[in-house]
């Protein structure tokens, strides 16, 4: 590598990534010891000296390690000083390459073939992030810049497709779920996530490498699918999971959604039982969530024609939070029932 290329790598160089080549395992103290060890999702290397977050392929062969530090003790927010990323073949205990071209490598995912993606948060305080796809040689395949922080991402086992979820931001890139075709270098679909921010992603790919569906996995709720074109396919299943399996805040938001448009009496009964369960599970101990729970109860009773119970629920909600949004309805019910 020439001097100019080395300087570009040290300074975060525009877009090119340079691999350092294979670094073999070395014997230590006259006996063979592992160069690479992983404990609690952290990777430690003897040569080169490295410690960072470990990201493993599903077949457990490949590890990408990310270290958000400039090598002289500075990590996190900064204006200069590149971090490091390494690709390790854990099966043969070999470091394939080390890259120092990323400003702040915060996250990664690696395929079963050794291709991988890195999320670079960049320098400074701007809401931004780059998702960079690299092959096993360390050469850049594709790059997507976001004017928003990247919340999380996932990679298909074959390494062809990536999923990226951005955090909220004032730009058009805020709160996006995108699927990227890394071979073709394009966005497959980009949308506001129907399920909120997922914890993990799965990819249904046929034998010819075509994307059939993508799954978004939510802890405690389950997995839900989008089609290859971005159509959400599990609306009812997701709603049922939120009502039945979510924590009290998730249950209450789902119950409110259930009552929003053309709600039936069955919907009202389901929302009422959900709000009661949420109160038992902890909403009663939080004035903000308790008020929302009693608002849901009041709206449910109102749909069921049980007006005295609805009024009592609205009054309770207002006592917990006067701005909960049912003042006018409570006044109207007081007049209707002659209690105002």
Structure explained in plain terms:
- The chain has helices at 3-11, 235-245, 248-258, 265-280, 287-303, 307-320, 327-337, and strands at 36-39, 42-45, 50-56, 62-67, 84-89, 94-99, 105-110, 116-120, 129-134, 140-146, 150-155, 161-166, 177-181, 186-191, 200-205, 211-218, 222-227.
- A hairpin with a 5-residue loop joins strand 7 and strand 8 (116-120).
- It has a six-stranded antiparallel β-sheet with strand order 1-2-3-4-5-6, with no helix packed on it. A four-stranded antiparallel β-sheet has the order 7-8-9-10, with no helix packed on it.
- It contains seven helices and 17 strands.
- Helices cover 26% and strands 29% of the residues.
Task: Kindly list the characteristics that best describe this protein.
single chain, alpha+beta, Serine Threonine Protein Phosphatase 5, Tetratricopeptide repeat, four-stranded antiparallel β-sheet, elongated, disordered N terminus, Tetratricopeptide repeat protein, TPR-like_helical_dom_sf, TPR_rpt, TPR repeat, Quino_amine_DH_bsu
Q: Assign an overall shape.
A: elongated
SS field, number of helical segments: 7
Overall pLDDT: 92
| Spans where pLDDT lies below 50 across 5 or more residues | 1-23
Largest sheet: 6 strands, antiparallel
Give the domain tally. Answer: 2
Helix content: 25-40%
Q: How large is the share of residues in beta strands?
A: 25-35%
Short account of what is shown:
By secondary structure, the chain is an alpha+beta fold. The protein has seven helices and 17 strands.
Outline the fold blueprint.
Elements: H1 3-11, E1 36-39, E2 42-45, E3 50-56, E4 62-67, E5 84-89, E6 94-99, E7 105-110, E8 116-120, E9 129-134, E10 140-146, E11 150-155, E12 161-166, E13 177-181, E14 186-191, E15 200-205, E16 211-218, E17 222-227, H2 235-245, H3 248-258, H4 265-280, H5 287-303, H6 307-320, H7 327-337
Antiparallel strand pairs: 1-2, 2-3, 3-4, 4-5, 5-6, 7-8, 8-9, 9-10, 11-12, 12-13, 13-14, 15-16, 16-17
Helix pairs in contact: 2-3, 3-4, 3-5, 4-5, 5-6, 6-7
Keywords: TPR repeat
Pfam families: TPR_1
Organism: Caballeronia sordidicola
């Amino acid at each position: 590598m020439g001097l100019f290329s080395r300087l570009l790598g040290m300074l975060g160089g525009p877009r090119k990534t340079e691999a350092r080549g294979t670094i073999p395992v070395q014997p230590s103290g006259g006996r063979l010891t592992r160069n690479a060890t992983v404990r609690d999702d952290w990777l430690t290397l003897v040569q080169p000296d490295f410690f960072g977050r470990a990201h493993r392929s599903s077949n457990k062969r490949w590890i990408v390690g990310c270290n958000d530090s400039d090598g002289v003790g500075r990590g996190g927010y900064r204006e200069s000083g590149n971090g490091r990323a390494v690709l390790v073949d854990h099966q043969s205990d070999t470091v394939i390459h080390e890259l120092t071209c990323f400003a702040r490598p915060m996250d990664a995912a690696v395929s079963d073939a050794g291709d991988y993606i890195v999320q670079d948060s960049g320098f400074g305080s701007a809401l931004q992030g780059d998702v960079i796809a690299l092959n096993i040689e360390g050469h850049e395949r594709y790059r997507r810049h976001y004017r928003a922080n990247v919340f999380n991402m996932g990679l298909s086992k074959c390494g062809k497709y990536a999923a990226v979820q951005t955090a909220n931001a004032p730009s058009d890139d805020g709160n996006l779920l995108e699927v990227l075709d890394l071979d073709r270098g394009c966005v497959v679909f980009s949308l506001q996530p129907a399920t909120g921010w997922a914890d993990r992603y799965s990819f249904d790919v046929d034998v010819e490498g075509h994307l059939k569906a993508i799954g978004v996995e939510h802890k405690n709720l389950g997995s839900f699918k989008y089609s290859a074109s971005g159509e959400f396919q599990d609306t009812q299943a997701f709603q049922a999971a939120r009502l039945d399996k979510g924590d009290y805040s998730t249950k209450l938001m789902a119950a409110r959604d259930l009552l929003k448009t053309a709600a039936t009496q069955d919907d009202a009964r389901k929302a009422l039982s959900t709000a009661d369960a949420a109160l038992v599970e902890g909403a009663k101990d939080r004035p903000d969530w308790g008020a929302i729970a009693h608002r849901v109860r009041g709206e449910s009773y109102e749909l069921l024609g049980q007006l005295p119970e609805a009024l009592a629920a609205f009054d309770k909600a207002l006592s917990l939070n006067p701005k909960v949004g049912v003042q006018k309805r409570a006044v109207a019910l007081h007049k209707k029932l002659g209690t105002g």
